[in-house]
Amino acid sequence: MQKLYFEPAWDKAIAPIDREKITHHFHQQTKQLQVGVHLSFLWNARNHKDEQLITVLIHNFEETIFHLDNTVISYYEQGEKTANATFSLPCEVTGNTSMPWTFIFSETNGTNADSRYTIWN
């Protein structure tokens, strides 16, 4: 059975309303998705550096641990690619677990390489 996990820093800092949104999204997505690893869009924002902050639920429906290391991810908004960047997660997502995470798309991690994962908004 899929479980929702909040990385300790998230668990301490997340606002109750955001936790509720994430939990709701988790329950909806786990009814629809069952296999593989998926990055499900939650929300986006821009920071003071004008970087795109894309928050997702990483769904690992596999039995094995999921590592994201130097992996290209694309972000699409209204059907058009708006960002493409390389990421590594400082933690892992255990099997049958979903975890919220924010990817920061900036000039420093941007790339033209083909993406391994896609985030759709």
TrEMBL record:
Taxonomic superkingdom: Bacteria
Species this chain originates from: Sporosarcina limicola
Protein name: SLAP domain-containing protein
